[in-house]
TrEMBL record:
InterPro entries registered for this protein in UniProt: Glyco_trans_2-like, Glycosyltransferase_2, Nucleotide-diphossugar_trans
Residues covered by the Glycosyltransferase 2-like domain: 7-173
SUPFAM superfamilies: Nucleotide-diphospho-sugar transferases
Superkingdom as given in the UniProt entry: Bacteria
PANTHER family reported for this sequence: UNDECAPRENYL-PHOSPHATE 4-DEOXY-4-FORMAMIDO-L-ARABINOSE TRANSFERASE, UNDECAPRENYL-PHOSPHATE 4-DEOXY-4-FORMAMIDO-L-ARABINOSE TRANSFERASE-RELATED
Protein name: Glycosyltransferase family 2 protein
Source organism phylogeny: Bacteria, Pseudomonadati, Pseudomonadota, Gammaproteobacteria, Lysobacterales
Keywords in alphabetical order: Cell membrane, Glycosyltransferase, Lipopolysaccharide biosynthesis, Membrane, Transferase, Transmembrane, Transmembrane helix
């Protein structure tokens, strides 16, 4: 069997009831029809040391879904670390990510792949843009202000960095500086590395089961420190063209 060209990475923490429905949707969206990838894909779930039935649910599915691989953190390490764990283990040259709560629509992955197929080679990140958010009013308000502050400080020309639906080149991602919560700043970090990014409108859905693992205050407090750090990285970054000389 050929190595997959696309890896779908899904970080999860206590999402036992969302496992089977989301895996089924990923398979339906990609099996035999992944645009530009010939249906050749794998799914890598990273369980961030869940305390519910998430891991048994994934283990049961492995017998039914040959594309599914399951990794588990020995201790809870956060979403950014889970994403990086999945990317490092991935066999595909390109990575699609989805949040594990089911609010991201796997049917959008072929749309991102199609956008990649008609984009220049220096576009290394296709970021989902939730134009019609299905969150609570307070969460939408908090995200609106957070995006405005981030855009003002980082100038990343990205309307929505919090969407879990993304497509990016594995090698470009692994070359980025790693830190906790880095997944929220991928457009700015990719641009800092000299690559281009594109925002693509995607679907967003209500959470069917389970509860959000974040609150607005906690996210805001962490975000202030992260923004300062990323702004510093951008100011101190330097990209230099290199050519080999005979």
């Amino acid at each position: 069997m050929h190595a997959p060209r696309l890896t779908v990475v899904v970080p999860v923490f206590n999402e036992q009831d969302n496992i089977a429905p989301l895996v089924g949707e990923i398979v339906a969206a990609l099996r035999g029809r992944a645009a530009g990838d010939g249906g050749n894909f794998e799914i890598v779930y990273v369980d961030d040391h869940s305390g519910d039935g998430t891991l048994p649910a994934l283990q049961r599915l492995k017998a039914e879904v040959p594309e599914l691989r399951v990794l588990r953190h020995a201790i809870q390490s956060g979403q950014s670390t889970a994403i990086r764990t999945g990317v490092r283990a991935a066999r595909g040259a390109w990575i699609a990510t989805l949040d594990g709560d089911g609010q991201n629509d796997p049917a959008d992955i072929p749309k991102l792949l199609a956008m990649r197929a008609r984009s220049p080679a220096d576009v290394k990140l296709f970021a989902g843009w939730r134009v019609d958010r299905r969150d609570s009013g307070s969460k939408r308000w908090a995200s609106k202000w957070a995006n405005a502050i981030r855009a003002r400080m980082l100038h990343d020309d990205t309307p929505d960095t919090g969407c879990g639906t993304k497509l990016f080149e594995r090698a470009a991602f692994l070359d980025l500086p790693y830190f906790d919560h880095m997944h929220r700043y991928l457009p700015a970090l990719m641009q800092r590395a000299g690559w281009k990014t594109v925002s693509v409108p995607v679907n967003h859905r209500h959470r069917a089961t389970g509860v959000s693992k974040y609150n607005n205050l906690g996210r805001a407090l962490v975000g202030i420190s992260d923004l300062r750090g990323v702004a510093w990285l951008i100011r101190r970054g330097k990209v230099t063209a290199v050519e080999e000389v005979d």
